Amino acid sequence: MSLERFLSNAVSSWMNDEGPNSDIVLSSRVRLARNFTDFRFSTLYSAEEAKEIVGTVRDKVPHYPKTLGQLEFLATNEIQPLQKRVLMEKHLISPNLAENENEGAVLLSNEEDVSIMINEEDHIRIQCLYPGLQLKEALNRANEIDDWFESEFDYAFDEKRGYLTTCPTNVGTGLRASVMMHLPGLVLTQQLNRIIPAINQLGLVVRGIYGEGSEALGNIFQISNQITLGKSEEDIVEDLLSVVRQIIEKEESAREALVKTSNIQLEDRVFRSLGVLEHSRIIESKEAAKCLSDVRLGIDLGYIKNISKNILNELMILTQPGFLQQYSGGPLRPNERDIRRSSLIRERIKLDKDACEEEE
């Protein structure tokens, strides 16, 4: 396995599986932040210490249990900026690690459902990704990996405060649990702006597709916990699950209402967006995301039957600036990216339709 293997496909292996409620919940993620007692935190450590942390973790990788899977070690100082951007667009590394000038690394599983970042904001961050609504499964997997790391390293831990982290907002469990949701019904019925404040009051936060500071492209929103101290990991996940299930119900009701009251308008919107994707020669990322969201909704509602549901997952990544340039073999100016984006979308939709016709 090599870096190229992680760069070549827009869709990670785990994304090809359908999880519970996958028509609305695209993915579930659990991330654990941990630090080692033998090193200063990232705000204070030197370049030499950062290098030593990477080397220390790398030396332990051969002992990683086969029962937990196989991990590939990638040093970030050996990865080009464009390649880092692609890994970030696939959610395999964070924007923080992609931009970090200190020596860092990432450990990736074959299926890309496990990503362990070294020298991001904390010494290590263990991330597990699952399709659909599978937060408990992601937490169990992350805990198994965390148990192994804790058996090999001394964690910075306080009996009262829990796991100590660089940012105080992560102290306690060090857990960030999140779900990626496609919510076009709530957006089109203008309910989401009323729901978000209520979600925030429950200690949760709603962000864009790439987390903090990112935009909610294509009606895709990331909902995660804010509180990490004073609750167990299981309670944090259960609280998030409870809210997510309510949002799923509201999204389903919103879609039903749209079909009942505005069916022809909704169908027209879906097929206009499909027409733009199939025939445009230039398309910007925001317009592409909006049209892809409409088409995915049309697939979920049964308006469109000859295109795969996974098209949203794949094209939302494939049409991002980094992946577009990687796919094209080099840097592209903005207008060149818009031309290449439209071409890729047309090609992808045609392949999907051809495959469906062959199956019939």
Automatic annotation (TrEMBL):
Entry keywords, A to Z: Allosteric enzyme, ATP-binding, Kinase, Nucleotide-binding, Transferase
InterPro entries: Arg_Kinase, ATP-guanido_PTrfase, ATP-guanido_PTrfase_AS, ATP-guanido_PTrfase_cat, Gln_synth/guanido_kin_cat_dom
Record domain Phosphagen kinase C-terminal: where: 24-254
Gene Ontology biological process: phosphocreatine biosynthetic process
Signal peptide stretch: none
GO molecular function, one term: protein arginine kinase activity
Pfam families in UniProt: ATP-gua_Ptrans
Keyword flag Methyltransferase: no
PROSITE patterns per record: PHOSPHAGEN_KINASE (PS00112), PHOSPHAGEN_KINASE_C (PS51510)
E.C. code: 2.7.14.1
Binding site for ATP: 27-31, 91, 125, 176-180, 207-212
Any single GO CC term annotated in Swiss-Prot or TrEMBL for this entry: extracellular space
Keyword ATP-binding: yes
Catalytic activity: L-arginyl-[protein] + ATP = N(omega)-phospho-L-arginyl-[protein] + ADP + H(+)
HAMAP family in alphabetical order: Prot_Arg_kinase
Similarity field: Belongs to the ATP:guanido phosphotransferase family.
Cited function: Catalyzes the specific phosphorylation of arginine residues in a large number of proteins. Is part of the bacterial stress response system. Protein arginine phosphorylation has a physiologically important role and is involved in the regulation of many critical cellular processes, such as protein homeostasis, motility, competence, and stringent and stress responses, by regulating gene expression and protein activity.
PANTHER family named among the record's database cross-references: ARGININE KINASE 1-RELATED, ARGININE OR CREATINE KINASE
NCBIfam families membership: PRK01059.1-4, PRK01059.1-5
Protein name (database record): Protein-arginine kinase
Organism annotation: Rossellomorea aquimaris
